[in-house]
Design brief:
The complex is a heterodimer of chains A (375) and B (272). With 375 residues, chain A is α+β, with helices and mostly antiparallel strands. Helices cover 23% and strands 33% of the residues of chain A. In chain A, the strands form four sheets. A six-stranded mixed beta sheet of chain A has the order 6-7-8-3-9-10, sandwiched between helices. A five-stranded antiparallel beta sheet of chain A has the order 13-12-11-14-20. In chain A, strands 15-19-16-17-18 form a five-stranded antiparallel beta sheet, with no helix packed on it. In chain A, helix 2 packs across helix 3 and helix 2 packs parallel to helix 4. The two termini of chain A are 44 Å apart. By secondary structure, chain B is mainly alpha-helical. Chain B is built from eleven helices and no strands. In chain B, helix 1 crosses helix 11, helix 2 packs across helix 11 and helix 7 packs across helix 8. The longest helix of chain B is centred in the C-terminal third of the chain and has 42 residues. The chains are: A alpha+beta (375), B mainly alpha (272). Chains A and B meet through strand 6, helix 2 and helix 4 of A and helix 7, helix 8 and helix 11 of B.
Chain lengths: 375, 272
């Protein structure tokens, strides 16, 4: 039985929950968001990923209502939200600092938004209990925020922002303050809660692993512009620009003029005198146009003998080995002085490692292993 | 405990002697049997009894307390509002000018403040009395409140207010339900500061007082001009006592709250 794939962005009938239409936001001379158009669909877990200062937090604050666009419009469920103040929006936010009210108990923090709504007392009780159960905080209901640990505070903040059952939940670096182990656990908890509640989540993060783990789609941002919006797999495997390829994960970038050799395949003349590299590409290039071949280190095979029947093979010398426990990354220097990284899983113990420093090795990859990107 | 070196002992003694000998002498002579304030004639509490019979003095004390309560309350409201706008208002036009202007009265000579207020009250034809003193005290103590409150607001996490808005509060509700409870200790200490300032102000009060409104400092000052009586010593001792008890209990309360919070935070970390 095939599970229906959740891909509303590929469905022309689907109505987006959030639409950014040519949104620009300036603070004085500084342009935080530059002519941004983007659609986010219901029940998505959408990640805004980028280095600090790329405008991702500004986007989120515009959704929450703390900032208004300088130009352009934002629609929530088809309605322009510019005139709606933050307290009237069906949007809740989980703050980076958690922003728990220190003078109120965990229970009162979660009930805060419900009381503002004028919900009857017994319904508030039921809802708060439900939220406490969802975030496994039943035991801490009577505590004050300073009487619980960081991970618990994070869950209180989540429970509080989910209590009003918003159409859209905004999460601003929600796991930034947690240590690595707890963060990984919490990522899965977040996904679980998102699925259970069916709420649309928009998360801001600078941690690419986090974005890749939790999100249905990722928007990679730089300098107020969205560079690419795609599923985590597409972002990683089919980046649309050198910036995205370089920002996400590790990558080898090889630059040079290309010539078409038919069937969507190109020859990349990357160095004078060296044999050209071949790569298949979805993008079309004119002859002589400069392209970048982006290939992930784990797609590069390292071997002692020259492999047969492989599209690309180059010889080099092991310059450095980065041992990560489960993986090793070999930095191989080619005769041209270029360095190419190849990654292998350490399926055998380190004492049985096949290659060591100064070894001469062959690196090879297929024509479809990497992507060709325009300059 | 560490022992202090001889040098440190001497400096400590000198410093504290300088600060407290005048007050100790005042307290000592309030228990003097004789009428002369400089000659010891045995222990007695009779001057405290006399003080309780002195209607003029008690009347002045009552006026002072009334003035202090009203002026410090108004000053707290106004000062908190001013602090809120200056800290939270963002960079509006003229912000630097306003914040400079709100702190200027701190360094303004009291004589000038008092005189300018007097001229104002004469100008608008307001009869001088309790009301004018309340207004004058509000004017000069408001800036102290605003300094205390704005320093608290500056360290206050702005996202708490945003969270309140996000959860459905109007800006006024956010202030009442979140900001105010959190900055309450600063507001209370601002009020106490304004209260004490009003309690012991002589200069501004004497400029703006009328025949029916004599505050305690004015009363004491005019009484001393006719000769110091041990009754004044007794009164001053009572005032010192009240202030001391207030200050010590306030600091004990805040210290206890801090210790409790530390302990609970440690427990939270351990139980995590």
């Amino acid at each position: 039985m095939a599970i229906p794939v959740f891909e509303p962005w590929n469905d022309p009938q689907a109505k987006p929950l959030i639409q950014f239409r040519n949104v620009t936001k300036r603070f004085g001379d500084f342009t935080a968001i530059d002519d941004l158009t983007i659609d986010i669909y219901e029940r998505e877990f959408f990640a805004l990923l980028g280095p600090s200062g790329c405008g991702k937090t500004t986007m989120m604050r515009m959704l929450a209502g703390f900032e208004n666009p300088t130009e352009g419009k934002i629609f929530l469920a088809g309605q322009d939200i510019a005139p709606v103040p933050p307290n009237k929006r069906a949007v809740n936010m989980m703050f980076q600092s958690y922003a728990l009210f220190p003078h109120l108990s965990v229970w009162e923090n979660i009930a805060f938004g419900l009381k503002r709504e004028g919900m009857p007392r017994n319904e508030i009780n039921t809802r708060v209990e439900e939220m406490l159960r969802l975030t496994r905080l039943e035991k801490f209901a009577r505590r004050k925020p300073h009487q619980i640990s960081g991970g618990q505070r994070q869950r209180v903040a989540l429970a509080r922002s989910l209590a009003k059952a918003p159409k859209l939940l905004l999460l601003d670096e929600p796991l930034g303050a947690l240590d690595r182990k707890l963060r990984e656990e919490t990522q899965f908890e977040l996904m679980d809660i998102q699925e259970k509640t069916g709420t649309t989540f928009v998360i801001v993060t600078h941690d690419q692993e986090e974005a890749m783990t939790v999100a249905s789609r990722v928007a990679v941002m730089d300098n107020g512009r969205v560079m690419q919006v795609a599923t985590p797999a597409d972002i990683y495997e089919a980046p649309n620009s050198v910036y995205v390829a370089d920002f996400i994960g590790d990558v080898n970038l090889i630059e040079g003029p290309v010539t078409a050799i038919g069937d969507g395949t190109y020859a990349l003349n990357w160095r004078e005198g060296a044999a050209p590299l071949t790569a298949k590409s979805q993008n079309t290039f004119s002859d002589g146009q400069t392209a970048h071949l982006a290939i992930r280190p784990e797609k590069v095979t390292i071997s002692a003998e020259k492999p047969e029947g492989v599209a690309n093979a180059v010889q080099g010398k092991v310059l450095d080995i980065a041992y990560l426990g489960n993986l090793s990354t070999y930095h191989v220097e080619l005769p041209t002085g270029d360095i190419i990284k190849a990654q292998t899983a350490n399926t055998r113990r380190i004492s049985r490692r096949a290659f060591t420093w100064e070894d001469t090795v062959w690196l090879s990859w297929t024509a479809t292993g990497g992507v060709l990107l325009v300059d | 405990m560490k022992r202090l070196s001889a040098f440190n002992v001497v400096s400590l003694t000198l410093g504290f002697a300088f600060l407290y000998i005048p007050m100790l002498i005042l307290i000592l002579f309030s228990f003097n049997e004789g009428k002369l304030v400089t000659v010891w004639a045995g222990f007695s509490t009779k001057w405290y009894g006399e003080l309780m019979q002195n209607d003029a003095m008690l009347q002045a004390a009552w006026v002072t307390i009334k003035v202090a309560v009203f002026s410090s309350t108004i000053a707290t409201v106004l000062g908190t509002m001013a602090a809120y706008v200056l800290v939270r208002g963002g960079r509006f036009m003229g912000r630097t000018l306003f914040s400079g202007m709100i702190y200027a009265p701190l360094v303004m000579p009291e004589v000038i403040t008092g005189l300018s207020l007097l001229l104002l009250f004469i100008g608008i034809g307001l009869d001088r009395g309790v009301l004018t003193i309340v207004l004058a005290h509000t004017t000069f103590s408001m800036c102290y409140v605003s300094v205390v409150v704005s320093s608290r607001l500056a360290t206050f996490d702005h996202s708490l207010e945003e969270a309140a808005l996000d959860l459905g509060c109007s800006p006024a509700e956010a202030f009442r339900l979140v900001t105010l409870p959190i900055i309450a200790p600063a507001v209370v200490s601002g009020w106490l500061l304004a209260f004490t300032l009003s309690l012991d102000d002589l200069v501004i009060a004497s400029f703006n007082t009328g025949p029916a409104a004599t505050t305690l400092p004015i009363k004491i000052f005019s009484a001393v001009r006719l000769g110091v009586s041990p009754e004044i010593n007794a009164l001053s001792t009572i005032m010192i006592g009240i202030v001391t008890v207030g200050v010590i209990s306030a600091s004990l309360i805040s210290k206890q709250a801090l210790v409790k919070q530390r302990r609970e935070e440690q427990e939270a970390v351990r139980s995590a």
